[in-house]
Amino acid sequence: MSSRLVGVGVGPGDPELVTVKGVNALRAADVVVVPVMAAPDGTDGGEPGRAEATVSHYVAAEKVVRVVFALNERSDRARREAAWDAAGQRVAELLEAHGSVAFATIGDPNVYSTFTYLAQTIVELVPGVTVETVPGITAMQDLAARSGAVLTEGTEPLTLVPVTAGSAVLKEALAGPGTVVAYKFGRQAAEVARALRETGRLGGAVWGSALGLPEESVRPAAELDGTPLPYLSTLIAPPRRDDGRGGKL
Fold first, then answer.
1. Are 182 and 172 in contact (CB under 8 A)?
2. pLDDT, tens digit, 9 for 90 and up, residues 45-85
3. Is the dihedral of CA 104, 142, 219, 205 positive or negative?
4. Can you say how many angstroms the Cα of residue 158 is from the centroid of all Cα atoms in its chain?
5. How far apart are CA 140 and CA 138, in angstroms?
6. In 3D, which of 105, 90, 101 has the Cα closest to residue 29?
7. 3-state per-residue secondary structure call for the chain
8. Does pTM surpass 0.85?
9. What is d(CA 118, CA 226) in angstroms, rounded to the nearest whole number?
10. How far apart (Å, rounded) are the C-alpha atoms in residues 208 and 234?
């Protein structure tokens, strides 16, 4: 039998937002891998990540394997590549020993997920491996539900921007039609607030962090004062909708 790697989206943090299919996939796997942020020396930083905390509600601790990833490494490509290679090798060893491995990732495994890079590595290391994904609820869906923001109406487009690509990319998106969602903007909170003001998108915009967790914060974007926010912050900036019900159809 071929080995099987399944990327399971476990949502943005609230354990109640893991799908039934996701829970079944986690429980069916022989091993559940959770990503751990690397310490400066490249070792396990020790703190459980959001994916691990969510998985702990459904899977016994002895079944969970922590694997170090350079999750936020952007400046040192060599270090990032080395960390990916090491993580891939560790997961390849787990597949050889157990056959069925699930990888838990926050949000969805096909939306800005570490699983994408892991899967690419595993396909090269493990001939004949089967790679599957189980979709997860995204932060923008959760924030929309918690804030009452409507993501799209009628023919409106939806644009998702990682602010790690630069505030200019966000500003360009905000100048267009439809709703703009920004991910990973905590460190650039001041630039995001400026872009919202300059494009007239501040009113109605909302941001949130730690969704579904005790430290959750959901607030109007107008309250952004430039203070850095948690890295995994999410912004929703809807377009103006002043043409009545069904006006966007």
1. no
2. 566 789 999 999 999 999 999 998 865 555 667 777 787 88
3. positive
4. 17
5. 5
6. 101
7. CCCEEEEEECECCCHHHCCHHHHHHHHHCCEEEEEEEECCCCCECCCCCHHHHHHCCCCCHHHEEEEEECCCCCCCHHHHHHHHHHHHHHHHHHHHHHCEEEEEECECCCCCCHHHHHHHHHHHHCCCCEEEEECCCCHHHHHHHHHCCCCCCCCCCEEEEEHHHCHHHHHHHHCCCCEEEEECCHHHHHHHHHHHHHCCCCCCCEEEECCCCCCCEEEEHHHCCCCCCCCCEEEEECCCCCCCCCCCC
8. yes
9. 35
10. 5
> Nearest CA to 203 among 239, 171, 161, 162?
239
Structure tokens given for 220: 């109007």
Question: Which amino acid, residue 60?
Answer: A
Dihedral angle sign, alpha carbons of residues 55, 61, 62, 64: positive
Q: Output the six-digit token pair for 149.
A: 């923001």
d(CA 242, CA 249): 13
Supply 57's token pair: 């509600």
Residues whose CB falls within 8 Å of the CB of residue 76, separated by 6 or more in sequence, listed in order: none
Query: Under a CB-based contact definition with an 8 Å cutoff, are residues 7 and 109 in contact?
Result: yes
Note the pLDDT tens digit of each residue in 201-231: 998 999 999 998 899 999 999 988 878 888 8
- What six digits make up the tokens of 159? 């644009």
